[in-house]
Amino acid sequence: MKPYTNLLPQEEQQDISLERIQSRLLNFFILVTISVLIVALLFFLGRLYLSSRISDMRQQIEDQQKLVSKENNQKLKKSIDTLNAHLNNLVSLEQHHAQWSEALIAFARLVPQDVAVDSFTATRQTGVIKISGFAKTRDSVLQLRTNLLSSPYFKDVDFPLSNLNRATDASYHYSFTINQDELIKAPSP
């Protein structure tokens, strides 16, 4: 292999290297944003599906009730009672359904520009979210934590001292909890 000689001054070589890193970070943030939007769209479509199912079930119940009143059929009345119970369960589920998409969008807005999120893990049952990545400065890591603490969607943000080891090119990891009460209060799409 022929040796490669770079005749550019050292300063321009560093500028080119920094531009490559900046391009990679921009691509990463674009991918994260697109991923968050896709997840939000999936949650929205799921909600539309549930709403459609509820209205279909309500219509079926009304039709069944009309039939029962005409025929006075006990077996059919029992079926309607079961269907009503299922409908009430769906309505209850819809009212207490957590709006994770709102929290994910809020999270995406809280991340400072010079902070990269390499790993994002959320556990729906416990509401625990774990993130890790790197930032250009220690102050950016602290700013991310401050942003999380100021958001109504997140609580119990841990503060590992290992996040403060380096002043520049700092890696970090946080775990925090989704505020379930805020998710239930979130507006419907």
Automatic annotation (TrEMBL):
| InterPro entries found in the cross-reference section | Extracell_DNA_Util/SecSys_Comp, PilN
Q: Which residues cross the membrane?
A: 28-50
Could you tell me the superkingdom of the organism this chain comes from? Bacteria
Q: Where is the signal peptide?
A: none
Keywords (A to Z) from UniProt: Membrane, Transmembrane, Transmembrane helix
The organism is Candidatus Doudnabacteria bacterium RIFCSPHIGHO2_01_FULL_50_11
Q: What is this protein called?
A: PilN domain-containing protein
